[in-house]
Design brief:
Pfam families: adh_short_C2 (PF13561). By secondary structure, the chain is an alpha/beta fold. The chain is built from ten helices and seven strands. It has one domain: 3-Layer(aba) Sandwich (Rossmann fold), CATH 3.40.50. The model has no long low-confidence stretch (mean pLDDT 90).
Length: 270
């Protein structure tokens, strides 16, 4: 028996050039998976692919707009044809949206941006891969949400509704796909501050919230109010998320489905 968690598995990661998607892709490859990373920005995908190849892993890249249902379905079909099927899929696509603006000043467009952006791509990617999964060999679909799914705080209406929607999507999809031998598990990390995740996306996302608290984004996140609001007094790292994703995607937790893995460091206690 191989000591690698994902030996012989075929994994597709949408948003594979991003911080979380790239971290997960690297760990999946390290654990023996053949990794297919897809996203809109070729340069970002190339960086992740080079890291994986340099470490001796198996990786292929594709420039795909995950909002384009036809393009995503064509890509999934091509992956399945080349690899003989899809065993694991993760949608790690990010959508820039507002956090920190209260209802009185929040536009309908900003409210709907994360709801439409996150849930549309989650639907498109899940539908595309599910038809190539399961039956004779177990399939796993992993999703990502945020503590906003359950937090009762102001200024995150669109964000919170989209996060709750992603978690509901995961649970319901798990029920639908269980007869086909496909597991669906959500992963709920908190804000991530290490590595490339601490770049412009994170800073722009939390600018309003930090300003309202009279802090810089760095002060809010790294050792500030967000970290101190967790039981562990820290925020999750990219490694925390990627290592957990690899374990959840493995056959070692073959009876886990329809649930959310809480990586919020205790910001939420389920």
């Amino acid at each position: 028996m191989s000591g690698l968690l994902l030996e012989g598995k075929n994994a597709v990661i949408y948003g594979g050039g991003g911080a979380i998607g790239g971290a997960v892709a690297r760990v999946f490859a390290r654990e023996g998976a053949r990794v297919f990373i897809a996203g809109r920005t070729r340069a970002a995908l190339d960086v992740v692919a080079r890291d994986i190849a340099d470490a001796g892993g198996k990786v292929e890249i594709a420039q795909v707009d995950v909002a384009d249902q036809h393009a995503v379905e064509e890509h999934a079909d091509a992956v399945a044809a080349a690899a003989g099927g899809i065993d694991i899929a993760l949608n790690a696509v990010s959508v820039m949206h507002d956090q920190g603006t209260l209802l009185a000043d929040l536009s309908l467009e900003e409210f709907m941006r994360p709801i439409d952006g996150f849930l549309r791509t989650l639907f498109v990617t899940s539908k595309a891969v599910a038809r190539h999964m399961g039956r004779g060999r177990p399939g796993v679909i992993l999703t990502l949400s945020e503590p906003g799914a359950k937090l009762a705080v102001g200024g995150i209406l669109g964000h919170g509704v989209s996060a709750a929607g992603k978690e509901a999507f995961s649970r319901i999809l798990a029920a639908e796909l269980a007869p086909a031998n496909i597991r669906v598990i959500g992963i709920r990390p908190h804000a991530v501050v290490d590595g490339p995740a601490a770049g412009s996306y994170t800073k722009e996302l939390f600018t309003n919230a930090a300003a309202a608290a009279g802090q810089s984004v760095e002060e809010l996140l790294d050792g500030g109010a967000m970290a101190q609001g967790t039981l562990l007094k820290r925020l999750p790292t990219l490694s925390d998320i990627a290592e957990t994703a690899a374990f959840l995607a493995s056959d070692r937790v073959g009876t886990m489905t329809g649930t959310i893995a809480n990586l919020s460091a205790g910001a939420l206690v389920d």
